[in-house]
Amino acid sequence: MRRMTYKDAGVDIELAESIVQDIKQFAEATRRPGVIKGVGGFGGLFGLDVEGMKKPVLVSGTDGVGTKLFVAQAVGKHDTVGIDLVAMNVNDISTCGAEALFFLDYIAMGKLDRYVVLELIRGISEGCRMAGCALIGGELAEMPGLYKPGEYDIVGFAVGVVEEEEVIDGSGISEGDIVIGIGSSGLHSNGYSLARKVLLEVGGIGLEDKIPELGGKRLYEELLEPTRIYQRSVLDVIKIGKVKGIAHITGGGIPGNLVRILPQGCSAHIKKGSWPVHPIFGLISEIGNVPEEEMFRTFNMGIGMIMVVHSDDADAIVRRLWDLGEKAYPIGEIRAGEREVTIT
Predict the structure, then answer these.
(1) How many Å apart are CA 329 and CA 320, to the nearest integer?
(2) Residue-wise over 17-45: b if at least 16 C-beta within 10 A, else e?
C-alpha cells in the first residue's frame, strides 16, 4: 500500500515554510520601535514603552475585508485588499485616539499560491507602513476542501495604546457640537455583496469594462480602490483640538456607526449635500433602483470617518485635516433628543 503524506492530502508544509521566509522581508520594512521579535516565532514580541504615560490603555481590533475579496480574486489583483485589511482594523482603533503599535494577519486558502500570498503581504506591509504600525506575526493556513482553488480569506488584528485620560469615547458629546465628515476613497470595504449584485448581475457590467460615469476607469479599478487609512491624521488632529467622538463609517453607514458614540440625550442631524458623493454610489443607486435610505444604511456614501468636536474648534480642525491631505466637511450638528441619527 502506498504511503500517504500530508502533501498528498493537499497541504504543502515545505512551501508554507518557504513562503514565511519571504514574508519576513515585508515585515521587516514595517519595523518600528518596540519590536523585539516578529514573523517566524510562535508569537510576535513587542516591548511596550510606557515611559511618560500615567495609565496606558491597550486598544485592540479585528476585522476582515468581506466579499471585496471576490473582486480581487476575479481579476488577480491582491495587494490592494492587503491595504484594506490594515485600514479596517487600524481605523477602528483610531476612533479611541489610540496609536496603532502592531498588526497581525491570518490568511487561509485552499491551495497555497506563493504569488498570491506575497502580493497580499505586500499590501499589508504597505498598509502598516502608512499607519505607522509594525507587522509582527500572522498565520498562513492551507485548507483544501474548505476553499475552492483560487479562493482565500484574510483577517487582521491590530493593537494600539492610548493614555486612559485621553481615551475618546463620545461621552463628552453635547448639544451644539459640530459633526465633521472626512472623505472616503470610495466604497472602502463594505456593501460589496449589494454592489456586486447590482453592478455585475443586474447591470451586466464586466469588471474590465471602462465606465464613463467613473471617468473612464475600469470597474475593477474603482471596486479595488483601497480603504483610506486615517491613523496619522487622527493622531495629528487630536493634538490641536478637543475631539469628543470619532466614528469609523463601515457597514451600517453613517446612521449605524455614528449612533454608537452618541451619549443619551443627544441626536445627530446630518445634512445631505454638505459633502460630495462619489459617482460609484449614484451608479449603484440608479442601476439597482436602491432606495436612498438603503444606500445610506449600506455604504459610507463618501464619508469614511466622522469627528464630533466643539463648535469653537470645528473650523481649525477642518482646516488642519485639509492640510493633512484629507477632504473634510462640516456635515451636521448635535442636538438634544433621542439617541439617533437623522439625515435630512
Answers:
(1) 11
(2) eebeeebeebbeebebebbeebbeeeebe
Q: Which residues pair with 64 in a beta bridge?
A: 155
Which three cell numbers mark 249? 463609517
Please name every residue paired with 153 in a beta bridge, in sequence order, or none if there are none: 108
Domain span including residue 58? 13-166
Phi, psi of 177, rounded to the nearest 5 degrees: -65, 155
**Quick one: 138 and 250 in the same domain?**
no
What contacts 120, CB < 8 A, 6 or more positions away? Answer: 78, 79, 81, 82, 105, 107, 152, 154
Q: How far apart are CA 187 and CA 227, in angstroms?
A: 8
pLDDT mean over 60-78:
97
What letter would DSSP give residue 177? -
Cell numbers 504543502 correspond to 12
Categorize the per-residue pLDDT at 9 as very low, low, confident or very high, splitting at 50, 70 and 90.
Answer: low
Same domain (yes/no): 288, 240: yes
Q: Is the pLDDT of residue 13 over 80?
A: no
pTM: 0.94
| DSSP-H helix ranges across the chain | 13-28, 68-75, 79-94, 114-131, 192-196, 219-223, 231-237, 253-258, 279-288, 292-298, 311-323
